[in-house]
Amino acid sequence: MKKMARKMAKGRRSGFKPSMVVALVWGSSTVFSQTARAEQFDLGNGLRGSFDSSISFGMAVRTSSPNCAFIGQDNGGCASSDQIGIARRDPVNFNQSYDLTRLNQDNGNLNYKSGQVFSATLRGVHDLFLKAPDGWSGLMRAAWSYDFAADRTRYADLEPDARSHAVHDIRLLDAYVNKEFEIDEHPVRARVGNQVISWGEDIFIPGGINSINAIDVRRAHSPGVQLKEIFRPAPILSLNAEVAKGLSVEGYYQTRWNGYEFDPVGTFFSTSDIVGRGSTGAFLPTSLVNSVTGQFGLPPAPPGTVGDTGTRIIGVNPSTGLPFNRQLSASELGDPNLNPLYGPLIHSGSVIPRGIDHNPRNSGQFGLSTRYTFPESGDELGLYYIRYHDKIPFASIRVNQGTTANPFGWQEIYLDYAEDRNLFGVSYNTRAGDWAFGTELSFRPKESTPIDPTIVSNPNNPYYCNADLNPANYRPTGYVCRGAVDQKKYQFHLTALNIFTPGGSFGGLLRALGATEGTFTSELAAAYYPDLDLNQGIPYSVTSDYRSPTKLSSGLVAQIGVNYPAAFGGQASFAPDLSLSYGMSGVSASALPGFIQGAGAVVLGLTVDFKTKPATKMRVDYTHNYGGGLSNLSRDRDFATFSFTTSF
C-alpha cells in the first residue's frame, strides 16, 4: 500500500498531504506535514550535501470541561465508590472501586480547565544530508522544542522529571551512514546507525507488522509536530538486497532497546499517574478506608482526608493534632506517623512507592523480510519475521511484608517489559483503477496482555497479591506480582487510498466542492485473541475502568481532504480535511491496537500553504473525542490546535 501510494502520487503536483489521525493511543492528534526546501552545497571531491530546517510555533487549547466521573473523590470529583466492571462480574475473585482507580488517573485532567492553553511550543527540526562518491551517504537529524505552557498547571505542580520532559527537549533522531553497491549486478544497500524501518501495510492503526521502532507519544501530541519526529530511531544495522528480478530481502539487527515515550504525568494527555515521567507511586483513597471505618465504630472520613500528591489534604496531622490543609508528598503519605487516616487507624501509609523501571536487555532484537513484486501487475507480496522485546510496559508489584507505606505489603510498583517475543507477518498490496489497496496479517504467539493483581481478593486465585488484608495469606517478601499474561494474537489490516482526479471515482465530489484535487485514505483493522477466557479469574486491566476484553475487536480510521490552489484570488492554497476514528466492535485485550467499542474521535482541520519563500504553512484543527463510556478517558478532553511552520 505504501509503495503503491508513492507510485500513484509520482509526478502529481499536489499541495495536500494526508496527516496522521491517530497518535498511537487510539486518541486524536493531527500531525502536521511540512515539506522543506533544503539548502544544498558542494564541498568538492564529489562530496555534496544539503541542510534543511523547519521552525514552528504551535498552540493547543482545551475546549471541554473535565467530567467529574473521571476524577477521584479526594480531588473533588464524583468517581463512584461502586465496584469496577470486572469486580461486579466476578465478585468472588475481584474487589476494587472506581474511586481508587480514578485517583491514579486524574492529574492530567485536573491540571487544565476548559479554555486554557495547555501547550505553546516552539520547535525546530534540522536535517543534514551528505552524499559522497562510491555510493556513500549519510543523514543526521536533530530536533528541539520548548513548551511555554505545559507547566502552567492549576491542580498540582509537575514533578521535576515530568516538567523537564514536558517543557524542553533536545534530541538526536536519525543518524546513520549508507553504503550502496552491487553484487552480481544486483543492488545492495547497507545502513548503520540510528534509523527507522517501516514494514507492512498499516497507515494509522498500530499493533501490526510495523512495530520495529517505538513511538514518542509525547511528541505526537504536540502541536506542529512532523511525522519524522514521532518514530524513535534505534541503533540498527540493516541490509537490503535485490537477490533476483523483483525479489528483495531485508534484514536488521538492533543493538540497543528503546521503548515508547509517554506523556509526562500531569500533562494534558496523560491518563495514568503511573506511566510516564514524574510518577511518584500509586495512591489509596479515603473511600477505601471508609469501607471499614464502621468496624472501628467511626464515621466515614470526608473526601480529601488523604489522596494523592495533588490533593489538598484536610486530614489531621497525627503529630500536631491540626489539619494539614496542604499537599503532602508521596513520602509523607507513605509515613504512618504522618498519614492522617491510614496511620492512626491501621498504622500504615496510603502509597505504593514507585520503583525503578525494569527495561529489557539491549541484545536479541532482529528481523528479516522478503518482498516479491509481480512483473505483470506490479502487486507486491511481503513476508516478515521480527524478534523483539516489548516497547509498551505493564505495571508489576514487588512484595515486602515489612513495608509500612501501605497496608498490603506492596513494596513498590514499577514498569516492566517482556523479552524475546516473536512476530510473523504477511502483506500484499495491489491497485484497482484509481484505488490502491494494502492488506496485512500478523501473528504473535505471545502478546503481553495487561492485568492488575492488586484487585484480586481471593487468596486461592493464582494471581492473588495480598489484596485481602490478611497477612496469613500474603505472598513472601521478594515475590513479584507480574502485571501481564501472555495471549496469542492475530491482527489484520486493510487499507485503501484514492488520489482524486476529475475523471476518477471521486470526480463528482471534486466538482461539487469546487476543488481541483484531494485524497481519501482509510484503514480497517481487527485483533483476535483465540485463547482469551474470562472464566479463569484473570484480572484483565486493559481499559481505564477494567472493562472485560473480548476475543475479537475491530476499528476504523478514515480521512478525506481536498485542495483549493490559489484560493480567493491569491497564491495561497487551502486544504481542508476531515478525519474519523471509531471502535467498531469489542475491546482489545492489549494496549495495541486499543479498540474500545463506540470510542473514537472526529478531527476537522485546515492547512494553508502560503506558497512563499521560505516555505510557510499554517495548520488549524479541532478534535472531538466521543463514546466508550467510562472506558474512554479522552472523552472529556476535546481540544483545538494552531501551528505556523516555516522551512528553509
Average of per-residue pLDDT values: 93
Spatial shape: globular
What is the rounded distance between the termini? 31 Å
The class by helix and strand makeup works out as mainly beta
Residues in helix, %: under 10%
Q: How many helices does DSSP assign? A: 10
Number of domains: 1
Radius of gyration computed on alpha carbons: 26 Å
CATH architecture: Beta Barrel
Please give the largest β-sheet. 18 strands, antiparallel, barrel
CATH class: Mainly Beta
CATH topology: Porin
Beta-strand percentage range: 35-45%
Ranges where pLDDT stays below 50 over 5 or more residues in a row are 4-30
Pfam family, one: DUF1302
InterPro entries: DUF1302
Protein name: DUF1302 domain-containing protein
Overview of the structural elements:
It is a single chain. Residues 4-30 have low confidence and may be disordered. The radius of gyration is 26 Å and the shape is globular. It has one domain (2-11, 35-71, 106-183, 201-279, 358-392, 418-647): Porin (Beta Barrel). A hairpin with a 6-residue loop joins strand 15 and strand 16. The strands form five sheets. It has an 18-stranded antiparallel barrel. The protein has helices spanning 2-9, 85-89, 98-103, 107-110, 160-167, 217-220, 286-290, 330-333, 342-346, 507-513, and strands spanning 39-44, 47-62, 117-132, 136-147, 168-183, 186-195, 214-215, 231-232, 234-244, 247-254, 281-283, 312-313, 326-327, 351-353, 365-373, 380-388, 394-399, 410-416, 421-432, 435-450, 480-481, 484-500, 517-528, 552-563, 573-585, 600-609, 615-626, 639-647. It is mainly β and 648 residues long. The protein is 9% helix and 39% strand. This is DUF1302 domain-containing protein. InterPro entries: DUF1302. It comes from Collimonas fungivorans.
